């Protein structure tokens, strides 16, 4: 019974906490990268991974180049249900071209902003 209550409590907390955390992370990405440089990139993979207590994380790996040097990047979202994780940015797929923002003073620091993807607009 205690295990069941822990699972229910975790599920309830994550149902509220995960959406807020995902929103906050996207907001932080927008804020810190507002004046960064854009470059073409490619989605390398999209995975939904199970976590503890039937919670899930969605990983979106991407790649981009700056001055001939290749860089990897990763965006991660957290979800209380696998169905929500599967629907998170459903229009992205491996091999897709995307717009990446990177810090010109440190090209290893990058982000994939969902609001910067023309194919996801309107």
Descriptive account of the structure:
- With 122 residues, the protein is α+β, with helices and mostly antiparallel strands.
- The chain is built from two helices and five strands.
- It has helices spanning 2-32, 82-87, and strands spanning 37-50, 56-66, 69-79, 97-103, 106-111.
- The chain has a five-stranded antiparallel β-sheet.
- A hairpin with a 5-residue loop joins strand 1 and strand 2 (56-66).
- The longest helix is centred in the first third of the chain and has 31 residues, at 2-32.
- The termini are far apart.
Question: How is this fold's topology laid out?
Answer:
Elements: H1 2-32, E1 37-50, E2 56-66, E3 69-79, H2 82-87, E4 97-103, E5 106-111
Antiparallel strand pairs: 1-2, 1-4, 2-3, 4-5
Range of helix content: 25-40%
Count the DSSP helices: 2
% residues in beta strands: 35-45%
Enumerate the spans where pLDDT stays under 50 for 5 or more consecutive residues.
Answer: none
The major β-sheet equals: 5 strands, antiparallel
The ordered string of helix (H) and strand (E) elements is HEEEHEE
Determine the N-to-C terminus distance.
47 Å
Structural class by secondary-structure content: alpha+beta
Question: Quick one: how many beta strands?
Answer: 5
Number of individual domains: 1
Attribute tags:
122 residues; alpha+beta; 5-stranded antiparallel beta sheet; 30% helix; 40% strand; elongated
Short description:
This protein has one domain (2-120).
